[in-house]
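JOB MANIFEST
job_type = single_chain_structure
chain_count = 1
residues = 247
[input]
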Amino acid sequence: MTSEQTMPVAVVTGAAGGIGLASATRLAEDGFHVWMFDLSAERVNAAAAALIERGLSVSSAGIDLRDEAAVKEAIKALPRLDVLVNNAGIFDVIEFDDLTAADLRRMTEVNYIPVFTVSQAAARRMPEDGRIINIASRSWLGARSIAHYAGSKAAVVGLTRAMALDLAPKRILVNAIAPGVIETAILDAWDEDARVALAARQPIGRLGQPEDIAAVVGFLADPRTGFITGQTLIVDGGASVGTLGGA
């Protein structure tokens, strides 16, 4: 028997780097065989090869999640599926006055609709006690200059709550994680002074790391956390609570 036939299986989208790679790593370390999906086959295959060298059980595939037929085929080909992490997404900053309907459609087509299509295909394969974990963003609470992005992530939060109710009869648990500022490739263009200033504005005095989010993915995927569904866990170092130093 192959590892996929004897181990629980997880799928992580957008797994070539950042939160996706950290989540795939964490789940593999926790005993899952992890299928790593990403738009870039070259990047995700390289990331998977590095994990295989560490002795972890992973496979990888390049897939455009906007292609519904390809998504259904990829999910159907899996021998089983226990956990899905919807992480793939895009981000950019555009002032509200400069936004276009095309910008909103672009975010919706990448950040929101695939969460539905991949989840629907996955839910049809999952046994009872399957888990769907959606990576949203703290920006769904509101943020400047990213209305298109914040709106797409607010849609993910709403979808998470609705899916949790619809899939409850199958005992498939659906939750979301809303990260704050995480040190990923998005911040590569920032110089060191800007990073230090950004970290200083966080209540706990540092930026989040992809592993901080992966730890929550591991928590929600754990069989022992079987009474949590429809929730959005904000993981932002306290930024959503308020700022230090009073008004």
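[summary]
The radius of gyration is 18 Å.
The mean pLDDT is 93.
exit_status = 0
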